[in-house]
Write a structure and sequence with these properties.
Blueprint: H1 24-54, H2 70-73, H3 79-84, H4 89-96, E1 100-101, H5 114-119, E2 123-124, H6 126-139, E3 143-149, E4 152-153, E5 165-170, E6 175-180, E7 188-193, H7 201-208, E8 211-212, E9 218-221
C-alpha cells in the first residue's frame, strides 16, 4: 500500500542484443548508404552510354559514326591492296581526285613511292602522282604504260622548270588513252584505237594550248 504522496518505482528491463542482431537505426543507415551507392552507379552508367552514342559507340545498337571521307581513307591501306580492288582507269581517276599536287621540294631529296604517297595523304609532286598512276595502271593490266614529261611553249613562252606529266596507256581492246597529271581532275583523253602505241604529243598540245618541244620530250616505260 502506498499513500498518495509516494511515486511508484519503475522497473528497469535489461535487454541483451543477440549476435547478428542490429538496432533499427543501423538498418536505416545501411539502407541509406545502399540507395546513395545505387544512384551513383546509375548516373555513371548513363554517362558512359551517352559518351558511346556521341562517338558512334561500339555496340550494334548504337548509331554509327560519320563515314570517313575519301581523303581520310588515304593511307589506311597499302598500294597493292588498294589497287587490287580497282577494275578500270575510272576507279584510279576517281581516287586520284583526292590527291593534291604540290611543288617540288628542294628540302626533300627522295621521291615518294606509291605507298609513301598514300601515307603522305595523297600530297605529292607532279612526278610522284604520275608514277603512282603508271604503276597502278600496270597492276590493273593495261598495256604500253608510259610516263612522259616535256617542255611546252604556250604563247611563245617556254615552260620547263616544272615539267607537266602525262601517263599514256592502252586497254585490252587496243583503245589508247592519256591522263594529264594536272590536279584537281587529272583528266583522261581518248587517243583512238591502234595496235601500236599512239603519239600523244598532238593531243597534249591541243589540251595545253602550246607546242611541246620534242627535244625535251622524255618517255619512261612502266614494266
Amino acid at each position: 500500500m502506498t499513500n498518495g504522496d509516494e511515486i511508484p518505482k519503475t522497473k528497469t528491463v535489461k535487454r541483451t542484443v543477440k549476435r547478428g542482431e542490429f538496432p533499427i537505426w543501423v538498418w536505416a543507415l545501411l539502407a541509406a548508404m545502399f540507395i546513395v551507392a545505387a544512384v551513383g552507379y546509375l548516373g555513371f552508367a548513363w554517362g558512359q552510354q551517352g559518351t558511346q552514342i556521341a562517338t558512334g559507340g561500339n555496340t550494334p545498337s548504337g548509331p554509327a559514326g560519320p563515314a570517313p571521307t575519301e581523303t581520310q581513307k588515304i593511307g589506311t591501306t597499302s598500294f597493292d591492296r588498294l589497287v587490287g580492288g580497282w577494275r578500270t582507269d575510272k576507279d584510279l581517276n576517281q581516287y586520284m581526285k583526292n590527291f593534291k599536287e604540290i611543288p617540288d621540294s628542294k628540302s626533300r631529296m627522295t621521291i615518294y613511292t606509291p605507298d609513301e604517297l598514300l601515307v603522305a595523304g595523297g600530297k605529292g609532286t607532279n612526278m610522284e602522282i604520275s608514277i603512282f598512276a603508271g604503276e597502278a595502271l600496270v597492276k590493273m593490266g593495261y598495256k604500253n604504260v608510259t610516263r612522259t614529261y616535256f617542255c611546252f611553249t604556250p604563247n611563245g613562252k617556254e615552260y620547263c622548270s616544272d615539267y607537266p606529266n602525262t601517263v599514256t596507256y592502252a586497254d585490252k581492246d587496243g583503245n589508247n588513252y592519256f591522263m594529264l597529271i594536272k590536279s584537281p581532275d587529272f583528266p583522261i583523253y581518248s587517243m583512238g584505237k591502234s595496235t601500236i602505241p599512239v603519239d600523244p604529243i598532238p593531243f597534249i598540245e591541243a589540251d595545253l594550248g602550246g607546242k611541246v618541244s620534242r627535244t625535251d620530250y622524255h618517255v619512261e616505260n612502266f614494266k
